[in-house]
Design brief:
By secondary structure, this protein is of the alpha+beta class. Helices cover 45% and strands 15% of the residues. It has 3 domains: 118 residues, Sandwich (Jelly Rolls), CATH 2.60.120.10; 118 residues, no CATH class; 88 residues, Serine Threonine Protein Phosphatase 5, Tetratricopeptide repeat, CATH 1.25.40.
Length: 407
């Protein structure tokens, strides 16, 4: 699987990480603590010495490239400022989820590490894009450098490239252009519960056009909805999970999932999950994943995310009662995550705090919403998250206005 396909699979598994930046938006600030890794899905990003820098960027990054990888791995600060040069879609991976990403998608992480190695080598003193004097600086200042995407595994040792691409793949080969721009593609999956091999349908986020981002952090796309394809479902036993949860089943867990098989088949009825999905199929697949997740004892934050996805798809169906039901359940889980999850990073805690305010507001509790929005904007570290800070302020004003009108 090529790197872009790996990123698309990750975007499908974690749609809540997908973020859209407009031209001029800042992804990372020089000197600011790195709290997230950005993986570019589309668009172009320029690297500058600071926000105030003028002229051509030091370097430019294209789809497939990471932003802030070295700083995140070192738990340090960004060495440059990253600014979107055009509308850009990216996966924002919170720092506390990077280790999880490395364990769940080692092939992707090897490629990112190779990109980092190439970047560090390319910026050695006197080399292209370095901060010293020489031809590299003149070229960067003239804006001659082309957008740099992630390194292809064929530039590594041939044996490693073959391992990353899969047995029998031709190292260095790319999919035809007409395939690369199709939103849907398939990938072979092996079910650990019933040993069935099947072709799961995946979606390329970079092939979609984001229309808007709603106030509870839901990105709406034109045409296909990535949420419909977020969960892979085995057509034989209906084991369902995100694409990264198909290899961590031990014998005891497989036994429990197999024992639940009859009930899953009965719950799904005649529903089929291969190929293109509509919103009803997406909801059914997500409910199956929630059911299997309960058996697998998934983390509470994962359960909250699944319930929030169900609310988003209910909104797509314009089923207000069902949306409120799932928003209420998601809110309960987010609240427990905020209070009990000792591993919650600063960035994740701010996000959960904001969502607790937003969901309270959507559920008709503006007073409770104001309390959470105020907690968010007064939290330590909020200044490093300008977009969330502005959004929390705006929603705080909306909630205050709602309170005033109802008084």
């Amino acid at each position: 699987m090529d790197q872009q396909a790996l990123l698309d699979a990750l975007a499908q598994a974690r749609p809540e990480w997908t973020t859209t930046f407009q031209r001029g938006d800042v992804l990372a600030r020089s000197g600011a603590a790195a709290d997230a890794l950005h993986l570019l899905l589309s668009g172009e990003v320029g690297l500058y010495a600071s926000v105030e820098s003028s002229g051509a960027p030091i370097d430019t990054l294209a789809a497939g490239a990471p932003v802030g990888l070295a700083a995140v791995l070192a738990h340090g600060a960004h060495s440059s400022t990253a600014i979107a040069l055009a509308e850009t879609a990216a996966l924002r991976v919170p720092q506390d989820a990077v280790a999880e990403l490395a364990a769940a998608a080692p092939a992707l992480f090897v490629r990112l590490a190779a990109t980092l190695a190439q970047e560090l080598t390319g910026r050695a003193p006197g080399g292209p894009g370095s901060s010293g004097t020489g031809p590299g600086d003149e070229e960067a200042q003239a804006g001659a450098a082309k957008p740099r995407a992630a390194v292809h595994p064929s530039s590594l040792a041939p044996s490693l490239a073959a391992e990353l691409e899969g047995e029998g793949a031709e190292a260095g080969s790319d999919a035809p252009l007409e395939n690369a721009i199709r939103p849907l593609y398939t990938e072979s999956v092996h079910c650990p519960v019933c040993e069935t091999d099947f072709e799961a349908t995946r979606i390329r986020i970079r092939a979609l056009n984001a229309i808007r981002r709603e106030s509870d952090l839901h990105t709406v796309y034109d045409g296909f909805n990535p949420l419909h394809y977020a969960m892979d479902v085995c057509p034989e036993c209906l084991y369902a999970a995100t694409p990264d949860a198909w290899s961590d089943c031990d014998a005891e867990l497989i036994g429990k999932l197999d024992a639940d098989r009859k009930d899953r088949l009965q719950a799904a009825g005649a529903m089929r999950f291969l190929g293109e999905r509509d919103v009803e199929t997406g909801i059914a697949a997500t409910l199956l994943a929630l059911r299997c997740g309960e058996i697998r004892h998934i983390r509470r934050r994962a359960r909250a995310s699944i319930l929030h996805k169900l609310a988003w798809m209910s909104r797509e169906m314009e089923d207000d009662a069902q949306e409120r039901q799932y928003l209420s359940l998601a809110r309960e889980e987010y609240d427990r995550v905020y209070r009990e999850d000792a591993e919650l990073s600063e960035a994740a805690a701010l996000r959960v705090s904001y969502l607790l305010g937003e969901l309270a507001f959507r559920l008709g509790e503006p007073k409770e919403a104001i309390r959470w929005f105020e907690r968010t904007v007064r939290s330590e570290g909020i200044d490093k998250h300008g977009d969330l800070d502005r959004l929390a302020h705006d929603r705080w004003i909306d909630a205050r206005e709602t309170m005033r009108k109802s008084a």
